[in-house]
Amino acid sequence: MPTKRQLFLSHVAQTSPYPMIVEVERAEGIFIYDVNGKRYYDMDSGFSVSSLGHRHPAVIMAIEDQLGKYLHTTVYGEHIQSPQIQFATQLSRLLNNRLQTVYYTNSGSEAVEVAIKAARKFTGRYGIISCRNAYHGSTLGAESLRSDIGYPSSFMPGMPGVSHIDFNAINQLEYITLETAAVILEPVQAEAGVILPKKDFLLKLRQRCHETGALLVLDEIQTGFGRTGSLFAFQQYQMEPDILLMAKAMGGGLPAGAAMSSSEILGCLADSPPLGHITTFGGHPSASPLLVPYSKC
Ligand SMILES: Cc1ncc(COP(=O)(O)O)c(C=O)c1O
Asked: Which numeric CATH code is attached to 57-296?
């Protein structure tokens, strides 16, 4: 009889040659318990997902409440579903800026794809600039934003039109031009080693995007939902993006992501052609009632 470990290694696709192989029985708060009752401090918290801890009671309550009503009906822009409205309205009130409309996705990478497509369509431009050493996800578009040679070269050719600047390099902002559709970056570079923006970098970047008409996209997929001390990191830098990307902790443990922007920018995906970007499960009712718990924690 094969062990679960053997079945895991033979039948579940591996993402690295060195899996942790913790056989999870349950998880609560900051702890994971394995099948032998051994308790682990979950120091990676599912790669920035479990910011509220595992199975936070308010999260479980919100999910259970929703499961008693409906699980899935058409999610994208056809049916009026309270969890989607509640989350989007509450988030726009909390941010209280031009970011007032939410496009729901299932993951961070998909939110990045939404931003690239919306920026290209809205500006009618092609160029995308990202920062060296950034990580924005593993779909081909998001992967194409990476600069480190090893990763992109294995999967290339990727998406054309991408170029890079160094994070924090104010003297490279001149590479943002009238041909740039969007600049996409993390306000704090995460995978690159937790690199904070230097004083003025984000402000100068914001200014350059205004001057050239390029959209500024902030990837807060990892920094969002309280990880830097404010709901989103950009709120500490006296500026705001044109498009804000979120995922990971957003779903409280369920898969959820979003691109948030003005209705003008995101609205361009609805027309000419209609259904310019769609997703079968993005904004799933079980995964989008969860700002409620954030406000109670
Ligand atoms: C900054 C950043 N952007 C995007 C992503 C991709 O998100 P997902 O894995 O949900 O597709 C990640 C994931 O680690 C991330 O850290």
From this structure: 3.40.640.10
